Amino acid sequence: MVRRLQRLNEFLLPAVSDTWLTLLRVGLAVEVILYCVSLRRDWLELFQSNGKGVISRDLSEAVLSAQSPLVPRLGWLVQIGGEAGVSEDTALTTIWLLLLCAGCFLLIGFFSRSAAVTAWFLYLCAIKSGNLMTYGMDNFTIIGLFYLMLAPLPDRYALDYRRGKRLYKNQHLLGLFQRVLQLHLCLIYFFSGLAKSIGLGWWNGTSIWRSLTSPPYNIIPLHVLAIFAPLLPLLGIGICVLEIGFPVFIWMKRTRRMWFLAILIMHIGIAFTMGLYLFSLIMIVLNVAAFGPEVMSLRERSVAERADPELAVSAH
Fold first, then answer.
1. Using an 8 Å Cβ cutoff, are 295 and 256 in contact?
2. How far apart are the C-alpha atoms of 182 and 297, rounded to whole Å?
3. What distance in Å separates the CA atoms of residue 201 and residue 188, rounded to the nearest whole number?
């Protein structure tokens, strides 16, 4: 019993370096910056309340209020700005600039904690106010920013560390946050694969066919897609096996690297066949931060031990 508790403690609290935290911080920063840049021309139309956009912000927030009145939204910030004499357009533009600045600060690791909290809150407000137009990418970005907001910042590659801020010496605390992120991804992939395998669409390839031929994701010409149609059932079954098996094979040393690379290839494929670049990017970022250092475990350990002698002592 004591040995089992010790193994559980070693699993949940491994001694790791902060490399994974650097990967998460930089990756999320790029994600937030690209999100802002991609919406720079449509930001006001998307979130104005006067009905200029495709879906008015008032409608989205009314639906949101019916679900929960406590969920953060842009309307709160616009209202605060209105009480200070700031117009709605100016308030929305300021929110966009703050979110972009938060992403830039995260990229260089300047005021990392404040930037992470700001990015998480403003991004959450934006996706909740545009809830009728959001998809998985937004939810996963919020998840990543939430982990970053709570993680033991700064990492050794952040500008905050160069400015003299102390690193967290507790390598086991870093390991706990990474482990929780890993387990979270395992649950996400398992239930995603399980949901796919319940229906027939992923077994006969029709789900993939519909995904690749439905606007605006129909990037591949139909005549080209028809050539590879016989392979779609195998591809669908492979994806189900890949996701359901993720919580098992990502932990086994013999299959870890293969499964990790297969997941990355799957998301790269989604990016180039459906144009879901930001979705693929956030999933790659989360996977690389969670499992990347462990996939290269030997190199990661040697680098970490050279950087921090205390880690070398705890690892042996």
1. yes
2. 15
3. 20
